[in-house]
Design brief:
About 30% of the residues lie in helices and about 25% in strands. By secondary structure, the chain is of the alpha/beta class. It binds iron/sulfur cluster (SF4).
Length: about 325
Amino acid sequence: MSDLFSLDNVSVQFKVGRKILRAVDRVSLAIAEGETLALVGESGSGKSTLGNVVAGLQVPTEGTLAFKGRKLDRASWPVARRAIQIVFQDPFGALDPRMPVSDIIAEPLRIQGTANAAERAARAAELIEQVGLPVDALNRYPHEFSGGQRQRIAIARALAPRPQLIVADEPLSALDVSIQSQVLNLMKDLQAAHSLSYLFISHDLAVVNHLVDRIAVLYLGRLVEVGPRAELFAGPAHPYTRALLASVPRIGARRSRGRAIVGEMPSPLAPPPGCVFHPRCPLAQDICRTEVPMLAPLAARAGEAACHFRDQVA
Ligand code: SF4
Protein backbone atom coordinates (compact mmCIF):
# COMPACT_ATOMS: atom_id res chain seq x y z
CA MET A 1 0.00 0.00 0.00
CA SER A 2 1.35 3.44 -0.83
CA ASP A 3 1.13 6.40 1.49
CA LEU A 4 -1.96 8.57 1.15
CA PHE A 5 -1.05 11.15 3.76
CA SER A 6 2.21 11.59 5.63
CA LEU A 7 3.57 13.82 8.36
CA ASP A 8 7.28 14.38 8.77
CA ASN A 9 8.64 15.77 12.03
CA VAL A 10 5.44 17.73 12.70
CA SER A 11 5.10 19.90 15.79
CA VAL A 12 2.29 22.15 16.93
CA GLN A 13 3.12 24.75 19.53
CA PHE A 14 0.90 27.27 21.28
CA LYS A 15 2.02 30.23 23.30
CA VAL A 16 0.50 30.20 26.79
CA GLY A 17 1.57 33.37 28.56
CA ARG A 18 5.36 33.29 28.41
CA LYS A 19 5.56 29.56 28.00
CA ILE A 20 5.41 27.33 24.93
CA LEU A 21 2.97 24.44 24.93
CA ARG A 22 4.07 21.66 22.57
CA ALA A 23 0.73 20.00 21.84
CA VAL A 24 2.36 17.82 19.16
CA ASP A 25 6.08 17.19 19.32
CA ARG A 26 8.05 16.03 16.26
CA VAL A 27 5.64 13.38 15.02
CA SER A 28 6.35 11.43 11.82
CA LEU A 29 3.58 9.13 10.64
CA ALA A 30 1.97 7.91 7.41
CA ILE A 31 -1.54 6.72 6.56
CA ALA A 32 -1.65 4.25 3.68
CA GLU A 33 -4.33 4.09 0.99
CA GLY A 34 -7.29 2.05 2.26
CA GLU A 35 -5.82 1.81 5.76
CA THR A 36 -7.44 2.53 9.09
CA LEU A 37 -4.92 4.00 11.48
CA ALA A 38 -5.92 4.58 15.09
CA LEU A 39 -4.47 7.46 17.06
CA VAL A 40 -4.85 6.64 20.75
CA GLY A 41 -3.89 8.25 24.03
CA GLU A 42 -5.34 9.87 27.10
CA SER A 43 -7.05 13.23 27.10
CA GLY A 44 -4.36 15.86 26.58
CA SER A 45 -2.08 13.58 24.55
CA GLY A 46 -2.37 15.80 21.47
CA LYS A 47 -4.36 13.35 19.35
CA SER A 48 -7.15 15.79 18.38
CA THR A 49 -4.59 18.48 17.55
CA LEU A 50 -2.80 16.01 15.30
CA GLY A 51 -6.14 15.04 13.73
CA ASN A 52 -6.83 18.71 13.03
CA VAL A 53 -3.44 18.99 11.33
CA VAL A 54 -4.34 16.10 9.01
CA ALA A 55 -7.76 17.62 8.31
CA GLY A 56 -6.19 20.98 7.46
CA LEU A 57 -7.79 22.75 10.43
CA GLN A 58 -4.50 23.37 12.26
CA VAL A 59 -1.31 24.63 10.67
CA PRO A 60 1.77 22.89 12.08
CA THR A 61 4.44 25.08 13.64
CA GLU A 62 7.18 22.84 12.23
CA GLY A 63 7.46 19.89 9.88
CA THR A 64 6.03 18.94 6.52
CA LEU A 65 2.86 17.24 5.28
CA ALA A 66 2.40 15.33 2.05
CA PHE A 67 -0.65 13.98 0.22
CA LYS A 68 -0.02 11.14 -2.24
CA GLY A 69 3.68 11.88 -2.06
CA ARG A 70 3.25 15.57 -2.93
CA LYS A 71 4.38 18.06 -0.31
CA LEU A 72 1.50 20.23 0.84
CA ASP A 73 1.86 23.98 0.52
CA ARG A 74 -0.48 26.89 -0.06
CA ALA A 75 -1.07 25.86 -3.65
CA SER A 76 -1.65 22.15 -3.11
CA TRP A 77 -3.59 22.20 0.20
CA PRO A 78 -6.94 23.30 -1.32
CA VAL A 79 -6.90 20.28 -3.66
CA ALA A 80 -5.94 17.86 -0.87
CA ARG A 81 -8.56 19.28 1.47
CA ARG A 82 -11.33 18.12 -0.84
CA ALA A 83 -10.06 14.58 -0.39
CA ILE A 84 -9.95 14.83 3.42
CA GLN A 85 -13.04 15.21 5.57
CA ILE A 86 -13.57 15.14 9.32
CA VAL A 87 -16.28 13.66 11.55
CA PHE A 88 -16.38 15.13 15.05
CA GLN A 89 -17.18 13.59 18.40
CA ASP A 90 -20.32 15.55 19.15
CA PRO A 91 -23.13 14.74 16.72
CA PHE A 92 -25.30 17.32 18.50
CA GLY A 93 -23.01 20.30 18.06
CA ALA A 94 -21.64 19.39 14.61
CA LEU A 95 -24.88 19.84 12.62
CA ASP A 96 -26.49 23.24 12.02
CA PRO A 97 -29.91 22.99 13.75
CA ARG A 98 -31.51 25.44 11.28
CA MET A 99 -30.70 23.42 8.17
CA PRO A 100 -32.69 20.46 6.84
CA VAL A 101 -30.65 17.27 6.55
CA SER A 102 -30.55 17.50 2.74
CA ASP A 103 -28.74 20.87 2.93
CA ILE A 104 -26.44 19.66 5.73
CA ILE A 105 -25.25 16.70 3.65
CA ALA A 106 -24.90 18.72 0.44
CA GLU A 107 -23.25 21.75 2.04
CA PRO A 108 -19.61 20.68 1.34
CA LEU A 109 -20.51 20.39 -2.35
CA ARG A 110 -22.18 23.83 -2.32
CA ILE A 111 -19.10 25.37 -0.66
CA GLN A 112 -16.77 23.72 -3.17
CA GLY A 113 -19.01 24.82 -6.06
CA THR A 114 -18.52 21.46 -7.72
CA ALA A 115 -22.19 20.46 -8.17
CA ASN A 116 -25.44 22.21 -9.17
CA ALA A 117 -28.60 22.06 -7.05
CA ALA A 118 -30.00 18.96 -8.75
CA GLU A 119 -26.68 17.10 -8.43
CA ARG A 120 -26.41 18.06 -4.75
CA ALA A 121 -29.95 16.81 -4.06
CA ALA A 122 -29.22 13.53 -5.86
CA ARG A 123 -26.00 13.04 -3.90
CA ALA A 124 -27.79 13.70 -0.58
CA ALA A 125 -30.50 11.16 -1.48
CA GLU A 126 -27.88 8.57 -2.43
CA LEU A 127 -25.89 9.08 0.79
CA ILE A 128 -28.80 9.11 3.22
CA GLU A 129 -29.62 5.58 2.10
CA GLN A 130 -26.00 4.49 2.30
CA VAL A 131 -25.85 5.51 5.97
CA GLY A 132 -29.01 3.53 6.70
CA LEU A 133 -31.58 6.32 7.10
CA PRO A 134 -34.87 6.66 5.17
CA VAL A 135 -35.08 9.15 2.30
CA ASP A 136 -37.71 11.22 4.15
CA ALA A 137 -34.99 12.05 6.72
CA LEU A 138 -33.68 14.57 4.15
CA ASN A 139 -36.57 16.96 4.86
CA ARG A 140 -36.23 16.83 8.63
CA TYR A 141 -34.00 18.77 11.06
CA PRO A 142 -31.20 17.55 13.35
CA HIS A 143 -33.24 17.82 16.58
CA GLU A 144 -35.61 15.15 15.23
CA PHE A 145 -32.87 12.49 15.35
CA SER A 146 -31.10 10.43 18.02
CA GLY A 147 -27.34 10.75 18.65
CA GLY A 148 -26.55 7.68 16.54
CA GLN A 149 -28.73 8.94 13.68
CA ARG A 150 -27.05 12.34 13.81
CA GLN A 151 -23.65 10.71 13.60
CA ARG A 152 -24.89 8.85 10.50
CA ILE A 153 -25.90 12.21 9.01
CA ALA A 154 -22.47 13.64 9.87
CA ILE A 155 -20.84 10.67 8.12
CA ALA A 156 -23.05 11.18 5.03
CA ARG A 157 -22.00 14.83 4.96
CA ALA A 158 -18.32 13.86 5.19
CA LEU A 159 -18.78 11.45 2.27
CA ALA A 160 -20.50 13.99 0.01
CA PRO A 161 -17.32 15.33 -1.69
CA ARG A 162 -16.09 11.75 -2.29
CA PRO A 163 -13.12 11.95 0.12
CA GLN A 164 -10.24 9.49 0.21
CA LEU A 165 -9.43 10.06 3.89
CA ILE A 166 -11.77 10.65 6.81
CA VAL A 167 -10.47 11.90 10.13
CA ALA A 168 -12.89 10.52 12.72
CA ASP A 169 -12.28 12.31 16.02
CA GLU A 170 -13.79 10.18 18.82
CA PRO A 171 -16.86 9.55 16.62
CA LEU A 172 -18.40 7.04 19.04
CA SER A 173 -17.66 8.42 22.47
CA ALA A 174 -20.90 10.43 22.76
CA LEU A 175 -23.01 7.39 21.79
CA ASP A 176 -24.54 4.56 23.83
CA VAL A 177 -22.50 1.33 23.72
CA SER A 178 -25.27 -0.49 21.80
CA ILE A 179 -25.24 2.24 19.12
CA GLN A 180 -21.43 2.37 18.94
CA SER A 181 -21.14 -1.05 17.31
CA GLN A 182 -23.80 -0.14 14.71
CA VAL A 183 -21.90 3.01 13.72
CA LEU A 184 -18.59 1.08 13.70
CA ASN A 185 -20.09 -1.53 11.37
CA LEU A 186 -21.44 1.24 9.15
CA MET A 187 -17.98 2.82 8.96
CA LYS A 188 -16.47 -0.54 7.99
CA ASP A 189 -19.08 -1.06 5.23
CA LEU A 190 -18.56 2.45 3.89
CA GLN A 191 -14.80 1.99 3.88
CA ALA A 192 -15.16 -1.02 1.59
CA ALA A 193 -17.73 0.68 -0.64
CA HIS A 194 -15.81 3.96 -1.02
CA SER A 195 -12.15 2.76 -0.75
CA LEU A 196 -11.63 5.05 2.21
CA SER A 197 -8.74 5.50 4.60
CA TYR A 198 -9.57 6.44 8.18
CA LEU A 199 -7.58 8.22 10.83
CA PHE A 200 -9.59 7.05 13.82
CA ILE A 201 -8.92 9.05 16.97
CA SER A 202 -9.92 7.38 20.21
CA HIS A 203 -9.06 7.12 23.88
CA ASP A 204 -10.66 3.65 23.89
CA LEU A 205 -8.48 0.74 22.75
CA ALA A 206 -11.40 -1.69 23.00
CA VAL A 207 -13.21 0.27 20.27
CA VAL A 208 -10.24 0.51 17.92
CA ASN A 209 -9.61 -3.23 18.17
CA HIS A 210 -12.69 -3.82 16.00
CA LEU A 211 -11.82 -1.49 13.17
CA VAL A 212 -8.20 -0.61 12.67
CA ASP A 213 -5.15 -2.00 10.85
CA ARG A 214 -2.45 -0.14 12.77
CA ILE A 215 -2.27 1.79 16.02
CA ALA A 216 -0.24 4.90 16.84
CA VAL A 217 0.05 5.76 20.54
CA LEU A 218 0.58 9.36 21.62
CA TYR A 219 1.75 10.53 25.01
CA LEU A 220 2.23 14.19 25.84
CA GLY A 221 2.30 15.06 22.14
CA ARG A 222 4.92 12.43 21.28
CA LEU A 223 4.54 9.25 19.33
CA VAL A 224 5.63 6.49 21.73
CA GLU A 225 4.59 3.39 19.79
CA VAL A 226 3.23 2.50 16.37
CA GLY A 227 2.55 -0.93 14.96
CA PRO A 228 0.09 -3.41 13.45
CA ARG A 229 -3.02 -3.83 15.63
CA ALA A 230 -2.78 -7.57 16.29
CA GLU A 231 0.93 -7.52 17.18
CA LEU A 232 0.58 -4.43 19.34
CA PHE A 233 -2.34 -5.96 21.26
CA ALA A 234 -0.48 -9.25 21.68
CA GLY A 235 2.80 -7.71 22.83
CA PRO A 236 2.85 -3.96 23.51
CA ALA A 237 6.43 -2.70 23.40
CA HIS A 238 6.08 0.58 25.30
CA PRO A 239 5.12 0.59 29.00
CA TYR A 240 2.52 3.28 28.28
CA THR A 241 0.82 1.11 25.64
CA ARG A 242 0.96 -1.77 28.09
CA ALA A 243 -0.73 0.32 30.76
CA LEU A 244 -3.43 1.50 28.32
CA LEU A 245 -4.11 -2.12 27.35
CA ALA A 246 -4.27 -3.20 30.98
CA SER A 247 -7.34 -1.01 31.37
CA VAL A 248 -9.16 -2.76 28.48
CA PRO A 249 -11.45 -5.50 29.85
CA ARG A 250 -11.01 -8.87 28.11
CA ILE A 251 -13.70 -11.51 28.17
CA GLY A 252 -12.39 -14.78 29.60
CA ALA A 253 -8.91 -13.37 30.31
CA ARG A 254 -6.99 -15.52 32.81
CA ARG A 255 -4.44 -12.91 33.70
CA SER A 256 -4.00 -9.20 33.55
CA ARG A 257 -1.87 -7.64 30.82
CA GLY A 258 -0.04 -5.64 33.49
CA ARG A 259 -0.66 -2.71 35.71
CA ALA A 260 -3.11 -0.03 34.63
CA ILE A 261 -1.66 3.44 34.32
CA VAL A 262 -1.14 5.38 37.54
CA GLY A 263 -0.88 9.09 38.25
CA GLU A 264 -1.70 12.10 36.11
CA MET A 265 -0.20 13.13 32.82
CA PRO A 266 2.31 15.95 33.45
CA SER A 267 1.56 19.41 32.11
CA PRO A 268 2.65 19.83 28.48
CA LEU A 269 3.90 23.26 29.57
CA ALA A 270 6.55 21.54 31.69
CA PRO A 271 7.29 18.11 30.19
CA PRO A 272 9.65 15.92 32.24
CA PRO A 273 13.28 15.64 31.03
CA GLY A 274 14.49 12.46 29.38
CA CYS A 275 11.61 10.09 28.64
CA VAL A 276 8.40 12.09 29.20
CA PHE A 277 6.73 8.95 30.57
CA HIS A 278 9.34 8.29 33.28
CA PRO A 279 7.39 9.77 36.25
CA ARG A 280 4.63 7.19 35.64
CA CYS A 281 6.70 4.31 34.31
CA PRO A 282 7.16 1.22 36.53
CA LEU A 283 10.30 0.27 34.55
CA ALA A 284 12.09 3.64 34.68
CA GLN A 285 15.88 3.53 35.17
CA ASP A 286 18.42 6.34 35.61
CA ILE A 287 18.92 6.74 31.85
CA CYS A 288 15.20 7.41 31.43
CA ARG A 289 15.43 10.58 33.51
CA THR A 290 18.10 12.16 31.30
CA GLU A 291 18.04 10.72 27.77
CA VAL A 292 15.13 11.05 25.37
CA PRO A 293 14.34 7.66 23.78
CA MET A 294 13.86 7.88 20.02
CA LEU A 295 11.19 5.98 18.10
CA ALA A 296 13.02 2.94 16.71
CA PRO A 297 12.10 -0.41 15.11
CA LEU A 298 11.50 -3.42 17.35
CA ALA A 299 13.79 -6.42 17.03
CA ALA A 300 11.16 -9.15 17.39
CA ARG A 301 8.15 -7.91 15.39
CA ALA A 302 6.84 -5.18 13.11
CA GLY A 303 6.44 -1.84 14.82
CA GLU A 304 8.41 0.91 16.52
CA ALA A 305 8.58 2.20 20.07
CA ALA A 306 10.26 5.10 21.86
CA CYS A 307 11.62 3.34 24.93
CA HIS A 308 15.20 2.60 25.95
CA PHE A 309 14.09 -0.93 26.86
CA ARG A 310 11.60 -1.53 24.03
CA ASP A 311 12.86 -5.02 23.18
CA GLN A 312 12.75 -6.13 26.79
CA VAL A 313 9.17 -4.96 27.33
CA ALA A 314 7.65 -6.52 24.18
FE1 SF4 B 1 9.81 3.68 30.89
FE2 SF4 B 1 12.35 4.29 30.50
FE3 SF4 B 1 10.98 3.14 28.56
FE4 SF4 B 1 10.48 5.67 29.25
S1 SF4 B 1 12.36 4.89 28.35
S2 SF4 B 1 8.99 4.12 28.84
S3 SF4 B 1 10.76 5.57 31.46
S4 SF4 B 1 11.50 2.24 30.55
